[in-house]
Structures are given as structure tokens and as C-alpha cells.
Amino acid sequence: MHSHPLRQIIESCDRAITAKDYDALMGNYSEDAALVVRPGMIVKGKDNIRKAFIAISDYFQGQLMVEQGEMQVIEGGGNALVIMETVLRFPDGHSGTVETTRRATYVFRQESDGRWLCTIDNSYGTSLLDADNA
After folding, report:
1. Residue 96 backbone dihedrals phi, psi, to 5 degrees
2. Cβ-count burial 10-48 (b if 16+ within 10 Å, e if not)
């Protein structure tokens, strides 16, 4: 069974984040996209999203690794809601590595030319509702 085209797009974004290839990464975002940088901090627009990804990479000393696990896609009205396990690996500050899994939510819009562009990137998913993230 073939995976949904959005899986390939998201996996290419993961590779671009790991490689710090922000031009390739931004090719998958709409001009009016929003990115949840962390709970309580959302940036909008491709220029601000690019800056946020650079800052995130710097914060993790250029060693953030991103992979995807299980995925569900719900399409309707030219949009797709993607619910996906996102696995993050980064330095723990003590010569080790931390691995954490989030249940991310993404929204993609299908453009008139058939391309899917990310309009909402929320790697925190519904955990934004948790009291300690408020």
C-alpha cells in the first residue's frame, strides 16, 4: 500500500530541517502559514517561520533530528488534517541525547496546481491544551 503524498512531503521537510536546508523547507509552506514554535508562541508568514527554524536549530546546537511515525490524514474541502507521531532527538546538554515523541497536528491546503502546502504546523498537537503548557 502506498503512503499518502503528505507523508513524503513531511518527511522531506524533516530531512530539510536536519540538513538546515531552509529554502527546501520553505517550499512546502504557504505564504500565510502559522508555526507553533512552543506553547504560547506562534509565528506567521514564511519569513518568520524561516527565522524560527533557524533559531530552533541554533537552540539545539544544529543537532535536532526529526522523524515521523504513525500518521492519519483526513481530507476535506481542499484541506488535509494530518495527525502524526513526530520523533525528536536532540542533545541533553550532558553529552547524551534526548528522544521524545509528540502527537503533532498539521494542516495542508491543496493548491490549484495540485501541490500541498502547509498552512498550520503544530508539532505540539493537542498537548497545547495541557495545563502545564498554558
Report:
1. -120, -175
2. beebbebbbeeebeebbebbbeebbbbbeeeebbeebee
pLDDT tens readout for residues 11-21: 899 889 888 99
User: Hey, is 97 helix, strand or coil?
Assistant: strand
**Predicted confidence (pLDDT) per residue in 17-45, tens digit:** 888 999 999 999 999 999 999 999 999 99
Residue in this structure with the C-alpha cell 536549530, named with its chain if needed? 57
Q: What is the dihedral of CA 52, 55, 17, 110, to 10 degrees?
A: 0
Pairing of strands 116-122, 29-38: parallel
3 state SS of 14: helix
